[in-house]
Amino acid sequence: MNIAMIGTGYVGLVTGTCFSEFGHSVTCVDKVEEKIAKLKAGEIPIYEPGLKVMVDKNVKEGRLNFTTDLSETVPAADAVFIAVGTPASRRGDGYADLTYIYEAAREIAPFIEGYTVVVDKSTVPVGTARQVARIIREVNPAADFDVASNPEFLREGAAISDFMRPDRVVLGVETENAEKVLRDIYKPLYLIETPIVCTTIETAELTKYAANAFLAMKISFINEMANVCEAVGADVTALAKAVGMDGRIGPKFLHPGPGYGGSCFPKDTMALMRIAQEYGESVRLVEAAVEVNAAQKARMVKKIRDAIGGSEAGKTLAFLGLTFKPETDDMREAPSVSIITALMEKGAAVRAHDPKGMEEARKYLPEGIEYVGNSYEACNGSDAVVLMTEWNQYRALDLDKIRSLLKAPVFIDLRNVYDPETMKSMGFKYIGVGRS
């Protein structure tokens, strides 16, 4: 099938590339000429394991193309996927900003020729597909099209495997024609018996928000349990393992830490709260999860401050990891941003290392941070080390070397990577999360 992918951000580029791997002919469209030029030259604007290899392969084999010209792409497309950004509203009210979605609808409308399925791939509030359909009809009354919702469930750092072997595919459709087109697009997944959930457009739009909100609640829950564990002298690691063995609960997302971040959970929980309020309903569990997450980041600032004697003024802190999770360069809503900013405002100096995120970090973190080439350089002469992101290369550090480089052997492990007893036996003052 011929597919047009509007937007070459994280979702658009990964989705378009994977569709081409399925064997479809895909053209990714973006109005930013510089970005398209770089993609044509083989430069990938984001870090995602395996993505560049797959892009290069499918470009070489002629199934994946990049352009700025909608007039070349939309008329020949069986399906047009809208995968542009839906950031939080600039008003700061938590609503999703749909400016780019509606703009894309207006721009593709004149070029629709023959029956076309227009698919919202971006995460959008309930009712967005209806508005997209209205805009297209206003611009091009003769257009023969259906609008559908096909939310993405991609984890940064594992997006390729998530797309190629998904837990499920959700299709929000109103007509048999639209369902047939989308089922044909996802036909390669039938071989591995991937569940296809076919539902109404509104249900599909709400599903992504509900899924992310539930996972955010699970993270906030285990962080609250970690705080209780610290208060009563229990160990949250063992607690989470025991709780996660319950088949009704499961072990995933029961890992305590400095709070959730990234491009999805913070934005989507806030958007779901606003959707509910708009319809006169409340989502109190989600509201509580958001509050707990904000409090957890503040709690980590206090944890670091207490570990270095009660004041960060004049102290140098080594931070290992900056991105909100490993295997990505994404710094959006990363816990490191609020934590480091708060510490620097009170006089701390920061040396930081991240395997992939330092260039992005400069856009989000305060000026004055010393970015270094490796973890040991960060620790050299620092008063304490903070393990912020659990990249694999931080899981087997030369601890004797780390101790010798630090001014004081203070190791603050916000991801519970290391064993407390081992660290203490090596002479460290070790501070974890939810561990007495």
Summarize the structure.
With 436 residues, the chain is an alpha/beta fold.
Describe the structure.
- The chain is of the alpha/beta class.
- 43% of the residues lie in helices and 14% in strands.
- The protein contains 17 helices and 14 strands.
- The strands form three sheets. A six-stranded parallel β-sheet has the order 3-2-1-4-5-6, with helices on both faces. A six-stranded parallel β-sheet has the order 11-10-9-12-13-14.
- Helix 12 crosses helix 13.
Provide mean pLDDT, rounded: 96
Task: State the separation between the terminal residues, measured CA to CA.
Answer: 57 Å
* SS summary, helix count: 17
The unreliable regions are: none
Query: Which value, in Å, is the CA radius of gyration?
Result: 24 Å
Coarse morphology: elongated
SS-based class: alpha/beta
Task: State the CATH architecture of the largest domain.
Answer: 3-Layer(aba) Sandwich
Strand order of the largest sheet: 3-2-1-4-5-6
What's the level 1 CATH class of the largest domain? Alpha Beta
CATH superfamily of the largest domain: NAD(P)-binding Rossmann-like Domain
Main sheet, how many strands, which sense, barrel? 6 strands, parallel
**What proportion of the residues is helical, as a percent range?**
40-55%
**CATH fold-level topology of the largest domain:** Rossmann fold
Number of strands: 14
- Total individual domains: 2
Indicate the proportion of strand residues: 5-15%
List the keywords.
single chain; 436 residues; alpha/beta; Rossmann fold; six-stranded parallel sheet; 17 helices; 43% helix; 14% strand; elongated
